[in-house]
Each structure stands twice: as C-alpha cells, then as structure tokens.
Design goal:
single chain, mainly alpha, Arc Repressor Mutant, subunit A, two-stranded antiparallel ribbon, 65% helix
C-alpha cells in the first residue's frame, strides 16, 4: 500500500490540514501505517497535482492560515477503486525477531532483557488500544464500527505478542 491511499482514506473521513492528518495518523492509521510529517506533506502535494484532492485556505482560531485538503470526485473514485482491489500480502520486518533469531549468540540474561523490554512496550500498546476500543465502543456510527474492527485486529496482535514473549522467555530459561 502506498501512503497515498492512507491519506485518501483519512480525508474520506473528513477534510483536514497536513498537520491534522499527521496528528490523526498518530491515533488511528498510524498504528499500522506510519508516515512522517514530511512524507505526508510531500504526498499531499502529489495528490493535489494529480487532482485527487483540492485545497482551501482556512484560518485557525489561533495561528496562521492553513491549507485544508478535501477529496475531489476523482480522489473518491481512486480510493473506491483501490478499496476494491485485493490487498497485497503483508511483509514482516521486525527487528526483535531478527535479534531472537540470532539470540543464541547472547547470554540468556541479555536476551531476557530484550524480551522484557518488548513485553513492556507491547503491554503499553495493548493498554492504549484497549482504551481506544472503549472510546469507539461508545459510538454507533458506521465509521467507528470499521475503525474498531481494525483496532481489534491490533488488540489480537498485541495479545499474541505477549503470549509469544512469555513462551520465548520460558524457552531461553
């Protein structure tokens, strides 16, 4: 998937500035598709050049004028076409798994420390996901229901990580 469709998906929810998109990524799509502010702004320029979004100037309550991006009909059509195509297989790129694969070269306490840190990180993320899930459960909107489906996939993944970390730690002794 390209960042293009992550941005179009976000803009389908509501028009937003580049700054708003970057902030929104941090609490939604960013859990499974990361992008820096620079990448978002660069892609917004491309989307605008391609006619998939339009901009309007908006004055914030505080601060300077900003560009707010809206989907164009062509942008909505491109998004709908993309949504209907089969998803590519996910590629796993996980640094911890590479470290565990080579972990036979470490002393057990060193490897356990890596696993303990990963457990803390995944426990924290799981708590964050569960809090968001509680918030989304309060809404009856169709958008919230689909956001919650993706969030629940993240919850399952974090729970699986924790189970695997326990298994790995028991295995190394």
């Amino acid at each position: 998937m390209s960042l293009r469709y992550a941005i179009l998906t976000s803009l389908a929810n509501q028009p937003a500035s580049g700054w708003d998109l970057a902030r929104h990524f941090g609490r939604s799509i960013g859990f499974f598709w990361q992008a820096s502010h620079q990448q978002i702004y660069r892609e917004l320029r491309r989307l605008d050049d391609d006619g998939l979004v339009r901009t309007e100037e908006a004055t914030g309550q505080r601060g300077p004028r900003r560009k707010v991006y809206h989907l164009t009909p062509e942008g909505r059509e491109a998004l709908l076409n993309w949504l209907q195509t089969p998803a590519a297989e996910s590629v796993v790129r996980d640094e911890l798994l590479v470290k565990v694969f080579g972990g036979w070269q470490l002393e057990p306490p060193q490897l356990r420390a890596l696993l303990d840190q990963a457990r803390t990180d995944h426990t924290d993320r799981l708590a964050q996901y569960r809090e968001l899930d509680r918030e989304l459960a309060q809404s009856t909107s169709r958008k919230a229901r689909f956001a919650r489906l993706t969030l629940q996939r993240g919850i399952f993944e974090e729970e699986a990580w924790l189970k695997w970390l326990d298994q790995a730690k028991a295995e190394i002794g």
